[in-house]
């Protein structure tokens, strides 16, 4: 059964009748990792994997949720003290609270939801969930008056205040602003963005999922951010966006070796995003690929957010002549993103499955990337 039909059926069984369907998407990021919370550039796009919810106002001050994927229900009120215990429900609670804090209206509703964004794969299933509900609450109770950027920030603040992840804006931004066949270069300082049509003749993007569990809560993710903030504050600037290698060298002896190496990665990575966009404009795909490998090396050696399995997948990609390959997202598990020439695709996928299986006892999962629309009301 299609996702949509399953959700409509579950809504009818749990709440009776029908609601209105909303969806939002997971995301990929071509390049620009751990740059968002440093005021740098990112280059994400939404994908065809979504969280979808069937929602109907219920005339009370309670929110009743049913998660098909977990087969669990949760109910909460809309005041701060009503926070639900279940982590998954806190995402929706957070979105409601953050909307209210910004002066928006939220009334009680019933909702059944499910998704096909793989969990813990670094594809931002949580941002998809937040954006889906933020979009729905805006549509149902606020006449769509809350700006799209504010919807992304509602999702981001939900992560900060209700889920313990001090993330940047990239995931929620991509989930809300995603557009079919386009990547979006976002300047995370000015919040200016530009859509880049992304279809490269003869190449495709594919994700190879190590299935190593990726969990950002209580993870070293927040520590990476703290390192960057310490260096920025030592340099007397707001974020590392305004730093260059010369500035970093000038404080090298006054900061820890670890903070130095983290900041070095960020300074190099923000340049790589601009270089990739230039290369794309010139049709120079080899340079795009080379920069993706450079990002992987930086994330693995300097930022230290890779793991053995992801490094192995990167090595396999290199051996198979894949144009570009790197760990994607926050790290600590999840996927590599690979830019592959069509004629190398079959060999790469077969080799990755075989070699990974021989070493780790299971095959990686493969997802072909289809760049799609972000948050929406489904007709
Ligand atoms: C996670 C965060 C994002 C971003 C990436 C790394 O996905 O949610 O804000 O920092 O990691 O680029």
Which terms summarize this structure?
11 helices, alpha+beta, 6-stranded mixed sheet, 379 residues, binds alpha-D-galactopyranose, 44% helix, globular, single chain, 13 strands, 4-stranded antiparallel sheet
Structure notes:
By secondary structure, the protein is α+β, with helices and mostly antiparallel strands. Helices cover 44% and strands 21% of the residues. A 6-stranded mixed β-sheet has the order 5-4-6-3-1-13, sandwiched between helices. It has a 4-stranded antiparallel β-sheet with strand order 10-11-9-12. Strands 2-7-8 form a 3-stranded antiparallel β-sheet, with helices on both faces. Helix 2 crosses helix 3 (125-141), helix 2 packs across helix 4 (148-162) and helix 6 packs across helix 8 (257-282). The structure holds alpha-D-galactopyranose. Alpha-D-galactopyranose binds at residues 33-34, 36-37, 124, 167-168, 170-171, 329-330.
- Topology as H/E string? HEEEEEHEHHHEEEHHHHHEEHEE
Task: Describe the global form.
Answer: globular
Distance between the termini: 18 Å
**In total, how many beta strands?**
13
Bound molecules: alpha-D-galactopyranose
> How many helix segments?
11
> Percent helix among the residues?
40-55%
Whole-number mean pLDDT? 96
Note the topology.
Elements: H1 3-15, E1 20-29, E2 41-42, E3 44-57, E4 62-67, E5 72-77, H2 87-101, E6 109-115, H3 125-141, H4 148-162, H5 170-177, E7 182-187, E8 193-197, E9 203-209, H6 220-235, H7 245-251, H8 257-282, H9 285-302, H10 308-319, E10 324-327, E11 335-341, H11 342-360, E12 365-368, E13 376-377
Parallel strand pairs: 4-6
Antiparallel strand pairs: 1-3, 1-13, 2-7, 3-6, 4-5, 7-8, 9-11, 9-12, 10-11
The structure holds alpha-D-galactopyranose (GLA).
Alpha-D-galactopyranose (GLA) binds at residues 33-34, 36-37, 124, 167-168, 170-171, 329-330.
């Amino acid at each position: 059964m299609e996702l949509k039909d399953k959700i409509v059926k579950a809504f009818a069984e749990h709440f009776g009748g029908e609601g209105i369907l909303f969806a939002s998407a997971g995301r990929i990021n071509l390049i620009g990792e751990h740059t968002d919370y440093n005021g740098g550039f990112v280059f994400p796009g939404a994908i065809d994997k979504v969280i979808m919810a069937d929602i109907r106002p219920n005339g009370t001050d309670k929110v009743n949720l049913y998660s098909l994927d977990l087969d669990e229900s949760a109910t909460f009120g809309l005041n701060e003290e009503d926070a639900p215990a279940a982590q998954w429900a806190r995402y929706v609670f957070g979105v409601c609270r953050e909307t209210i804090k910004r002066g928006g209206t939220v009334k009680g509703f019933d909702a059944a939801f499910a998704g096909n964004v793989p969990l813990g794969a670094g594809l931002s299933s949580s941002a998809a969930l937040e954006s889906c509900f933020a979009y729905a609450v805006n549509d149902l109770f606020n006449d769509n008056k809350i700006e799209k950027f504010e919807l992304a920030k509602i999702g981001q603040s939900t992560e900060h205040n209700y889920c313990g992840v001090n993330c940047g804006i990239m995931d929620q931004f991509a989930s809300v602003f995603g557009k079919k066949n386009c990547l979006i270069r976002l300047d995370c300082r000015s919040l200016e963005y530009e859509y880049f049509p992304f279809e490269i003749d003869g190449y495709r993007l594919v994700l190879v999922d190590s299935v190593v569990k990726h969990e950002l809560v209580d993870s070293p993710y927040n520590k990476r951010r703290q390192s960057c903030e310490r260096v920025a504050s030592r340099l007397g600037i707001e974020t590392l966006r305004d730093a260059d290698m010369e500035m970093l060298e000038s404080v090298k002896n006054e900061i820890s070796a670890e903070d130095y190496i983290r900041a070095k990665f960020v300074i190099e990575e923000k340049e790589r995003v601009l270089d990739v966009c230039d290369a794309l404009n010139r049709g120079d795909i080899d340079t795009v690929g080379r920069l993706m490998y450079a990002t992987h090396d930086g994330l693995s050696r300097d930022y230290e957010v890779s793991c053995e399995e992801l490094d192995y997948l990167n090595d396999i990609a290199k051996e198979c002549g894949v144009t570009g390959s790197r760990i994607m997202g926050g790290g600590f598990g999840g996927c590599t993103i690979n830019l592959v020439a069509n004629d190398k695709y079959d060999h790469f996928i077969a080799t990755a499955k075989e070699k990974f299986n021989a070493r780790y006892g299971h095959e990686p999962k493969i997802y072909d990337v289809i760049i799609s629309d972000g948050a929406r009301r489904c007709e």
